[in-house]
Amino acid sequence: MAQVAKQTGLATQLSLVIGVRWLIFRNGLRSRSEKAHLAGTVLLGFFIGVITLGAAVLICIGAFAITESGNWLALSLMFWGIFSLWQVAPVLAAEMNPGFDGRNLLRFPLRFSAFFLMGAAYGVADPFALAGILWHLAIALGVTIARPELAGWAALAITISVIMNVLFNRLVFAWLERFLAKRRVKEIVTVLFVMLAVSMQFSGILLQRRGQAMKNALKNSSGVWSVLPPALPGVVIEDASKDDLSGVLRTAGLLSAYALVFGALYAIRVRAQYTGEDLGESAAPVREKTASKRAPVAALAIAARAIQQEGHRSQIVSAQVAGIFVKELRYFYRNTMLMMNIFMPLVFIAFLSLTPGVPRRQGGPPFFARFGNDFAYPVAVVYIVLLMMNFCPNNLAYEGRGIERLFLAPIKFRDVMLGKNLFHGGLLALEALMALVLVSVLGHPPRPVILLATWAALLFAGLIHLGVGNWLSLQFPRRFEFGVRRQRPSGLTMLISFGLFFAEVGSVAAAAALCIWLAGLWLLPLVYLAMSAIAFVIYRLILEGTTRQAVAQQDTLLEQLSR
Amino acid sequence: MPEPAIVAEGLSRSFGNLVAVDHVDLRVDAGQFFGFLGPNGAGKSTTIRMLTGLLAPTSGRVELLGLSLEGNATEVKRQIGVVPEGLALFDRLTGSEYLNFVGRMYGLDRATAAQRTEELLDFMDLADRPKTLVVDYSHGMKKKLALAAAVIHGPKILFLDEPFEGVDAIAAGTLKTMLHNMTARGATIFLTSHVLEIVERLCSHVAIIQKGRIIAQGSLDELREGVAAAAHMEGAAAPEQKLTLEEIFLAVVGQDGATRKSEEELSWLK
Predict the structure, then answer these.
(1) Contact assessment for residue B121 and residue B100, using Cβ atoms and an 8 Å cutoff
(2) Could you tell me if residue A356 is left (phi over 0), alpha (psi between -120 and 50 degrees) or otherwise beta?
(3) Which of A69, A321, A357, B151 is the most buried (most CB within 10 A)?
(4) CA A134, CA A157: separation in Å to the nearest integer?
(5) CB B27 within 8 A of CB B205
(6) Which pLDDT does position A170 carry in this prediction?
(7) How far apart are CA A10 and CA A118, in angstroms?
(8) A327 and B87: CB-CB below 8 Å?
(9) Confidence grade of residue A282 (pLDDT, cut at 50, 70, 90)
(10) Which has more pLDDT, A48 or A150?
């Protein structure tokens, strides 16, 4: 019988894990893209380092000034600020995807203590944590320079605070991971974060209108937030400055107790992972859809059925094209990030209508005052075209391994692209109608000639974008995952798309200026329709070429999309 | 002589310096249940990908049902069904939606696609979770769904890459019956599997590929005779019992060395 090896010590296990991480990192650098990524990270790290160091100098000066003046409430607020950045920024930056999954190591006889420490250590290695630690040190330095006798207490306060912050950060990540294990929840939370980021744009308005009231509320509630963990290191230093030893011990003890509680709660999660918890991906609840809840989708579903029926009865579109259209619709309403795109332009229009600082004329909201009633709708449609670019230039992004089915089926890629274009075109039209309703409600409906010209220009821009988008999708495909933010098409795709957008806007604006100068607004819809006819020819040419292009690009498409 | 359903001549595929498939010649007659075997990395999946049009060969030609794949891809694809290595599923559709979609892609009208979808889901025991997305299926369920998708249009040739891996014994039995019925009605099945007992039970003809080259091809009896003749030439006694496919396979791919290796080395495992 073979002899079984002895259990290794904690230090050996930790060094082995660090070693394997290093090997993974080093081997990753074999590819050119990883080397470029490292170079970019180092460059970015340098700039962020300079900013962090600058902030540390300011914090040190601030802590010095606060200690000199004895405004201890401000010191607690400073700790609160660091805590907020340390805890919130990594969650937003990590896009809800925890980096290192220690559960891969559970197949080995790993000690619980090693597993726990690795998880906690991963929290310290986070750039925001490193910045937080540096800023803690800056506070201690500022306090020490101002009152050298407080150095020991400041060191004690920041040590416990750093431990508390690390454990709280790991706790948040561990529970977020558990909470976000369900795909649908992950997508919804991601959308909430995006909405939160967008709503930050409104904070200026809020501060302008309610700034004083918020300041008062902050002061009045200081009794509450100053006993919460982030403020306590400041209170420890304050008590020490007053030679209140019992106060120092009580507050430091309370802060330590908080750290212990966070550590214990974190240990519960780690223990669950250690004992083999597999969060996996569980089935999302699927409810019956009601017309009222999903009006835009319902409208598209009716269109889908109509196309299917039409396709069956009169062969306007083939069964394959109808099939692709329906599949696109299903993928659309199951993809929260894509769904959000349909509301974003409307949110932006509402946001612009609320932005202060633009003089109000004609009694309407500022957006309408700035552009005049005639141009509000065309500008809104430009926003829509800009945001709808998310769909067109990488329209195979979500196919995954399904792309193989498209190559195995007796279908021409022209039909695949046509099905997708019909769906995206329908979405664009629906969005334009919704924007029209919004503009009409918030301001005034546009004059008929403006409305016709806008729709004709939209047809022109839409056809160009869909056509070029088809070519780009086949030429530079990039796989996207459901529910994950910050996924971008290839750099070249982005560049061409933006170039195209500005060329379209430029040509539409130039045509408008020329028409108004030569004849008048009445000519504009006709000119745009003529431009749309040319765009249609271009679109058709590209579309007919997609079957050949897909065959030529088959290896790239399968490799990029189904890996 | 029966009509050939699958013909490959001089089929090769290189990836950089690596020759994955090297001048493969294959002939599979209509109605045959054909097993395509080989060790890991021998070139089985690459060959299937080329036969089904998923991968362009570096050289050589493929003919299915008398039609060259090059130039008649759409017509050929209409008549074949494939369960590829990656299963080719759209994971954000439900099983029913996926089968309907595939049916429509193969040109079935809506009513027929819906009817066949219902029958296939029922047959594969997938009907009890109609609203579950494919992404939430187990591996075995995904495999069954991929099989259902491969047959929804009634193909004349069926290419199956490891179809029974991860499928439970009951479902595997049902599938085998279905596949036998298909060959009885004249369909041709091209199967790769590492489970040699299954191949032996199902297939009448077999080809073995190693390092990208076909090293044996024929009916099971022909392969048995070949192995026995080779053993005889080396002075070994003729086997008393009929050789199993596993014994044929091991003899053909040269397993003797591997057995010696495991006997001589890793002594600390004993």
Answers:
(1) no
(2) beta
(3) A321
(4) 14
(5) no
(6) 87
(7) 11
(8) no
(9) very low
(10) A150
Give the C-alpha separation, A478 to A22, whole Å.
Answer: 29
Strands B80-83 and B157-161: parallel
CA distance A332 to A326: 10
Q: What is the pLDDT of residue B145?
A: 93
Q: Is the pLDDT of residue A162 over 90?
A: yes
Q: Which of B52, B85, B90 best probes binding to A when mutated, by most A CB atoms within 10 angstroms? A: B90
- Sequence-ordered list of residues with C-beta below 8 angstroms from that of B109, at least 6 positions apart, any chain: A312, A319
**Segment B233-246 mean pLDDT:** 74
Confidence label for A297 from pLDDT (cuts 50, 70 and 90):
very low
User: Is A250 exposed, middle or buried, given 0-12, 13-18 or 19+ CB atoms closer than 10 A?
Assistant: middle
Contact A562 B269 (CB under 8 A): no
For residue A33, the model assigns a pLDDT of: 59
Please give the backbone phi and psi of residue A282, each rounded to the nearest 5 degrees, phi first.
-100, 160
| Chain A, window 465-504: residues with a beta carbon less than 8 angstroms from a chain B beta carbon | 482
**What pLDDT does B213 receive?**
94
Cβ–Cβ < 8 Å for A168, A229: yes
What is the distance in angstroms between the Cα of A100 and the nearest Cα belonging to chain B?
23
Question: For residues A188 and A58, what is the distance between their CA atoms, to the nearest angstrom?
Answer: 38
Candidates B169, B99, B100; CA nearest to B140 is B169
Contact in structure between A385 and A397 (CB atoms under 8 Å): no
Interchain contact A399–B (C-beta under 8 A): yes
Identify all chain B residues contacting A320, using CB atoms and an 8 Å cutoff.
Answer: 104-105, 107
| Tokens describing residue B127 | 């009907």
Task: Specify the pLDDT at position A360.
Answer: 45
Who wins on pLDDT, A398 or B231? A398
Are A328 and A419 spatial neighbours (Cβ–Cβ below 8 Å)? yes
CA A110 – CA A8 distance, rounded (Å)? 8
Check residues A89 and A418 and name the one with the higher pLDDT. Answer: A418
Mean residue pLDDT of chain A comes to 79
Amino acid letter, residue B269? L
Cβ–Cβ below 8 Å for A555 and B55: yes
Q: What is the pLDDT of residues B197-228, one digit of tens each?
A: 889 989 999 999 999 999 999 998 898 888 87
Helix (H) or strand (E) holding A548: helix A524-552
Q: How far apart are CA A338 and CA A321, in angstroms?
A: 21
Label residues A354-373 b or e (16+ Cβ within 10 Å = b). Answer: eeeeeeeeeebbbbbbbbeb
Q: Is residue A534's pLDDT more than 60?
A: yes
Domain boundaries, chain A: 10-193+219-274, 295-561
Cα dihedral A81, A82, A87, A88 sign: positive
Any B CB within 8 A of A331 CB = yes
Q: What is the pLDDT of residue A113?
A: 83
Tens of pLDDT, residue by residue over B29-53, are 999 999 999 998 899 989 999 999 8
Tell me the CATH number for domain B4-269: 3.40.50.300
**Cα angle value B250/B253/B254 (rounded, 5°):** 75
Q: How far is B173 from chain A (nearest CA, A)?
A: 26
Percentages helix, strand, coil for chain B (3-state, rounded to 5) are 40, 25, 35
Q: ipTM of this model?
A: 0.81
Alpha-carbon gap, residue B58 to B52, rounded angstroms = 15
Residue given tokens 């306007």 in the structure block: A316
Distance CA(B162)–CA(B191), nearest Å, equals 7
Map out the domains of chain B as residue ranges: 4-269
> With an 8 Å Cβ cutoff, are A283 and B136 in contact?
yes
Q: How near does any CA of chain B get to the CA of A434, in Å? A: 27
According to DSSP, the β-strands at B205-210 and B33-37 are parallel
pLDDT tens readout for residues A422-468: 999 998 899 899 888 888 887 788 889 999 999 999 999 999 999 99
